[in-house]
């Protein structure tokens, strides 16, 4: 108690000093400015009208081709580009947006899933008296509150624990976190608080106990990033923006300015990636919102322009949900190399990341084994020794490219800008770069402001503060109950639909097929352990999904949660899409192959395969080798040195267990390293070594063979469902 009083006293001194320097005058000025903006909007703006029906992709492409001239053409369908489209169209500007891939296919779907102000940036602002960093944190905290308000179905506050292992750090961190609350002001989500050691372990029982002093808990927001991005783009489309994914820009169009004679950008030559058809989109202003690809579009404008983007790769991993509490995250403020690591519950799994390493710009970033192991090592440092952190428990892994930028408007063009940068070229190209997910709306506002000024566009004021995104208007925390009662959906599925589609969940439920069971009445799952149902695939096509990768990565999040589950769901997803989109058999095969390639390289399957290869060393003890040989020979009765599907079927039939041939083929294929249709003894021993070392977990063949051995005389049924097996 005495220590807590001392800590609080220390904190009050720190809070008072920094608040005097940074906070009070700026807080008052910010609120006056924001209040004035809202008052102007209320007085001057006409009510916005949203279309009840989402235009089809074909009609959007038709609008791009047929419109004589748009006011604004935005290149890039990530969070910032989609935010620009929504900002522009709600100001009354004739707006177009094109995206080469799918909405949120790049960095915007590969974030840490946090909506935050940036605790570490506030620390820098205080330690270095950096007013720019302070303003950036303040802006982000305002945007955090706005994002939680406009998409309540996709976002929620999340408590995050900062464990403390040294006594002197407790008041130090407590002051910093309390300042974070203070800067947020009236938009503070919930007040931070100190926990004793026992209370911290009660809330986060997986935490390392030894030397733990206590913990501090603060609040930030969390969201479904890809779905949030899509909601922004769909909302813009419903307000009248012509938005089209899978539409790439081939080159920028230019014409001479009649007044100055200089060449000015007047649109772009575009190509529908799906059909190959090319067409021109004319616009008074073109905005470059392409994230890591900022420089490639800038060079379309001026070939000799210097690069401003300095890409950095951030790797995340997903582990089973039992690694973290359901509603408590963890922050490691100082890793072994000075980075910050978050360890967060997300979609009933646990997400850990991120790294920060220089990289090349690529459409297909790949997570490296080095980065995966770095994250695992840091996680081990904070979790109890009772929890074995296994490499095999990594269910998915991905890399996102963060587009750090230098400011071309600054005299110091070598210095990395921590904030976003808006630049207008001599030919009129407006580039928005840098920034972070949380501040997408203010970035879009600054960009459209710059475009309106540079091109003399007639537009109203920004109207996106407090503007609800699609699905948010009719959502409530109890909406899922109506889905259960009205349609007969499982409670878990109903909650998922409500928290993904908001008030549009009823449209998805209407498409759900009857299961033929007593319960649930409707809603066939794509895979047993996740709440995604088949009708989501049909509905996603209406929301511009065009490929199987769109479905597993962004319309559902299967690829980000469990790549094995995503792989299992793919055949059914392709079948449903093929029927709706009238794909040929060849097209179905191509989609399946492309999606498997995506899982293999970009979502961690490649890293998984490297854990178990035909060159893997066998390091089992002699006793273990004999035991596993005996188990293997129970299936290999003829002493061939390998087992096939027929061998497994024979043993299972002897104990009255039926597993269909396709399932058995999948089970053996997981271990068949040389892909010859059989599992050799050496491969089996390599598998058991990998399991023993924690490199592989949840192998269905290993579970099946062990269960068969134990139950050969008892004739018990053997489960072959995946047991949270990882990469």
Automatic annotation (TrEMBL):
SUPFAM superfamilies: EF-hand, FAD-linked reductases, C-terminal domain, FAD/NAD(P)-binding domain. Residues 623-658, 659-694 form the EF-hand domain. It holds the Pfam family DAO_C. Keywords: Calcium, FAD, Flavoprotein, Glycoprotein, Metal-binding, Mitochondrion, Oxidoreductase, Repeat, Transit peptide. Gene3D superfamilies: Alpha-glycerophosphate oxidase, cap domain (1.10.8.870), D-Amino Acid Oxidase, subunit A, domain 2 (3.30.9.10), EF-hand (1.10.238.10), FAD/NAD(P)-binding domain (3.50.50.60). One of its GO terms (molecular function) is calcium ion binding. InterPro entries: DAO_C, DAO_C_sf, EF-hand-dom_pair, EF_Hand_1_Ca_BS, EF_hand_dom, FAD-dep_OxRdtase, FAD/NAD-bd_sf, G3P_DH_FAD-dep. This is Glycerol-3-phosphate dehydrogenase. It comes from Salvator merianae (Argentine black and white tegu). The lineage of its organism: Eukaryota, Metazoa, Chordata, Craniata, Vertebrata.
